[in-house]
Amino acid sequence: MAADLPVGAKAPGFTLPRDGGGTISLKEFHNRKLVLYFYPKADTPGCTKESIAFSKLRAAFAKAGTDILGVSADSVKAQDAFKAKHDLSIPLASDEKRQMLEAYGVWGEKSMYGRTYTSLHNN
Fold first, then answer.
1. What is the spatial distance between Cα 41 and Cα 21, in angstroms, rounded to a whole number?
2. Annotated catalytic, 69?
């Protein structure tokens, strides 16, 4: 299981495939504020509400000089379908290999009802 990033730690670099094709990297946000939000699976109820809310608030974040990027382990194809279905206005990145998710300490082993599995942490 990946360790949580300590408060004040430098954000790990990343380059990931993104919705619509191409890639997106941390370098693109150099000297800008960035909200990264992580979600377990596109088009599930909680993830959908969260993504719609961030899309609605995009202009307010931009006015405050802040960008938003959603990241999940879904494929780019799933991200594209999710974005189109809910008319999302924020970029979505795909980390199918879960390297970035692990580097940020949000992916790891969980246990529920006596069953162990790996997933996104929800804390």
1. 19
2. no
* 122/26 Cα distance (integer angstroms): 23
Q: Report d(CA 96, CA 66) in Å as an integer.
A: 26
Could you tell me which residues are beta bridge partners of residue 35? 68
What pTM value is reported for the model? 0.85
Residue 36, both tokens: 């990264």
As a whole number of angstroms, the distance between CA 57 and CA 75 comes to 25
The pLDDT tens digits of the residues spanning 47-71 come to 999 999 999 999 999 999 999 999 9
Domain boundaries, the chain: 15-120
Active-site annotation holder among 47, 88, 90, 93: 47
Question: pLDDT by residue (tens digit) across 71-86?
Answer: 999 999 999 999 999 9
- 15-120: which CATH architecture? 3-Layer(aba) Sandwich (3.40)
Long-range contacts of 9-12 (CB under 8 A, 24+ apart): 11/36, 11/104, 12/100, 12/103, 12/104
Q: What share of the chain is helix, strand, coil (3-state, %, to 5)?
A: 30, 30, 40
